[in-house]
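G.,

No rush on this.
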Amino acid sequence: MEGSVLARIAAIVFVAIAITAAMVEMGRDEAGQAARPAAPLMPGADPLRTEQRRCQELGEAAASDPGCLAVWAETRDRFLGRERDRTGGE
């Protein structure tokens, strides 16, 4: 190998090491400790989620189950950001 090729390879390796060191340093907090990622938000038990699981386990029978139809309507309304009319009609 020629000297210029070796110099280019050495420069690329040096830059890669420098970038890696910079990324590690940016990942530390002010005290020099490795920063921990924030814990994911874990909401309490959601009754809607529990009912969704129940309907999932019912399989094809869930399509005719009135409880599952109500759960799917609630899920759809939450997703679309709509307020449901709780008096019985939509």
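When you get to it, here's the other one too:
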Amino acid sequence: MFIAILTYKKPLEDVDRFLQAHREYLAEHYDAGDFIASGPQTPRVGGVILMKAESRAVVDSIIEQDPFNINGIADYRIVEFTPTMFVEPSLSDILK
């Protein structure tokens, strides 16, 4: 499992110009089962994406598609981890 920590390197007005395209990218990867949770940091200095992928190479290929990456909006820090404890039911049930 991976966490992508995005840090904006452009002003929020630039971020907002690409926000809809970024959300479409997120939706595509939720539909594909790649993403588990995502959202903006507080304060709004970037975002976080919780991902499942077979390898770091797969994560990198997914990140390459992000309009925030393509347009130089954000830097990405990727953290890989192995969950050893988790809550049942699913995270989506908890977040409701």
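The helical segments are 12-17, 19-31, 56-63, 67-70, 91-95. The CA atoms of residues 3 and 50 lie 5 Å apart.

Enjoy the weekend,
O.
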